[in-house]
Amino acid sequence: MSKEVAIGVLSRETGVKVPTIRYYESVGLMPQPSRTEANRRHYGPEAVNRLRFIRHARELGFEVDAIRQLLDLSDQPERSCKAADAIARRHLSEIKSRITRLRALEREVQRMLAECACGRISDCRVIDVLSHHEHCLHHGK
Predict the structure, then answer these.
(1) Domain CATH number, residue 6
(2) Prediction pTM value
(3) Is the dihedral of CA 136, 137, 138, 140 positive or negative?
(4) Which residue has the higher pLDDT, 65 or 132?
């Protein structure tokens, strides 16, 4: 992309939906684009790279604030990458924590299903556990 393009073209070039591009502009991840006389947004080549960066960061699960920080850092190529590394390490820690919680949930649902006799609802272990949190293995944790 060598010239300025409309938001629809930018969307197709990057795989990011138009409403999402507008959202990224509203939260400051994307700069406000130039406008035509008809008040239509127009984007330069740098918008494609920035939007691809944002999309990839979102695919990896980074939150908007972390992406904003990473974008700010990427605008300063001579800086040490320690800050970017710290952001990625925090994110990895959050991922590991979520995985731990998901594994506990998996074990609980497997137990619930294993204890279900598949008879009547009045005897259903799934319904019983969901109705009485104290029956969960991880209750109070």
Answers:
(1) 1.10.1660.10
(2) 0.77
(3) positive
(4) 65
